[in-house]
Amino acid sequence: MRSSTGGPAEADPFDAGAGGLLRQPKSVWATAGASVVAFMGIGLVDPILPSIAKGLDATASQVSLLFTSYFLITAVAMLVTGFVSSRIGGRRTLLLGLAFVVVFAGLAGTSGSVGELVGFRAGWGLGNALFVSTALAVIVGAAAGGSAAAILLYESALGLGMACGPLLGALLGDASWRYPFFGTAVLMAIGFLCITAFLKEQPRPARRTSLLDPLKALGHGGLASAAVSAFFYNYTFFTVLAFTPFVLNMTPYKSGAVFFAWGVLLAVFSVIVAPRMQKRFGSLKVLGGSLVLLAADVLILGYGDHTTAVVCTVLSGAFIGVNNTVYTELALGVSDAPRPVASAGYNFVRWFAAAAAPFFAPKIEEWTDVHIPFVVAAVTAVVGALVVLVRRRALALPRALDSARAGGTPTAEELEPRHAAEDGVTVFTD
Hints:
Blueprint: H1 26-43, H2 49-55, H3 60-63, H4 65-88, H5 90-108, H6 114-142, H7 146-173, H8 179-198, H9 213-217, H10 221-248, H11 252-281, H12 283-303, H13 306-333, H14 339-367, H15 372-390, H16 392-405
Helix pairs in contact: 1-6, 1-7, 1-8, 4-5, 4-6, 4-14, 5-6, 5-8, 6-7, 7-8, 7-11, 10-13, 10-14, 10-15, 10-16, 11-12, 11-13, 12-13, 12-15, 13-14
Subcellular location: Cell membrane
InterPro entries: MFS (IPR011701), MFS_dom (IPR020846), MFS_trans_sf (IPR036259), Tet-R_TetA/multi-R_MdtG-like (IPR001958), YfmO-like (IPR053200)
Transmembrane segments: 28-45, 65-86, 93-112, 124-144, 151-173, 179-199, 220-243, 255-274, 286-304, 370-390
């Protein structure tokens, strides 16, 4: 049997037989489990942002710096992760990242001021960057059943982590805003022990990655276009994630339930729905349409009543899940740069928006009113879609060139970027 791309078809990742999704070595499950906790850290503080503000006598804009410091360090660290992992190996990079998270998450729970908490959250971001940028490479290298099963397992860990983070934050944060930080430190320490026990060192790449390689990769027009579009999209994404809890103004339990439902939709649409939509309509059409729908959803969220805002917050998870999957494949399939290098350059650009949105959204509310931050977020989503539309040839160029070199005419499928699962690539997703 052959795939639609003409190469050998991979085994069905859902097959329960040998190499199926659920029949993986202990090392894979250890890494995937730690990945769930790592992604939980992103949304962990969502339900307790108002509680943190009250407990530390801080404003919404000050507390939102928890996201800004976290993602600012994560963005810069993208230039370092490949440099580190290509020298000390994937296993040691994972353990180093986990150690940083354990230490700084624990310290965050002891914070006496919002300034201390923001600083500790920055150290947490460095650890998370080292871990998540390496985790899929390790899973792909150790998984049974080919890259399709490995990538699906990683995407599932991402979705589960994004869904459970707010839930854990709500359950522990109802007693004290400090407990979710201590809980994360304990869970990551367990992940550290599991990876130490079950994961063997992975082969190191033949060539060491330099600090400038990710920036050089952005010289490719298609990769740069994907990164710029994702930058605007991420501003919208993290306006929803970091600013909406203040607008909803709910108890930790209720806010946690809202963002748990949001995370479930994100996981389902990322892992199950997005690949099917891409196959039917093509990646660029799916991405452009999803960005426009996200813009409409965010605009309604900003101007609707409380119930409408809750519904739109949950619904945004569906569009975000689709976007996350398609952007990852665009970034990794559009250029000829090594996949870890392309991923680092792409993430270096887009995470700056994740740092900017939590800072600017509360500021914009202070300068105007509560509706305008969502108007800005809707505009940035549309701008992301326009970049995809205007730069669609650059985003689709490599496979069309391959067809032309072979003396053929590019097909509609060839005008789509490669899927990450086609060649067992190393991926860093949202």
